[in-house]
Specification:
It comes from Kouleothrix aurantiaca. This protein is 0% helix and 36% strand. It is globular, with a radius of gyration of 12 Å.
Length: 85
């Protein structure tokens, strides 16, 4: 876990570094995530709840409850479907 809390554009979010250049971002959570920077998380661990928070000054926008899910490899956004079961 390398970022947890208020993120520019995403509102409340969590960013997880999986190693090997892979980072996942979960944004627009309803409230401050229960996980902390530096905490190790495993598959199935609760990292937050979907919401509709956003940071207008950071270019964010939301019209309803949802989860913004991004996968980046070496800093570049990629299709997340290749990482899902």
């Amino acid at each position: 876990m390398y970022e947890s809390g208020w993120c520019s554009g995403f509102g409340y979010c969590v960013k997880i570094d999986h190693g090997g250049g892979v980072v996942t971002i979960y944004g627009h959570m309803i409230k401050k995530p229960p996980v902390k920077v530096g905490q190790v998380v495993d598959v199935g661990d609760l990292i937050g709840y979907m919401g509709s928070t956003f940071d207008r000054s950071g270019g964010g926008y939301s019209t309803g409850v949802h989860l913004h899910f991004t996968v980046k490899v070496n800093g570049k956004a990629v299709n997340p479907l290749q990482f899902l079961p």
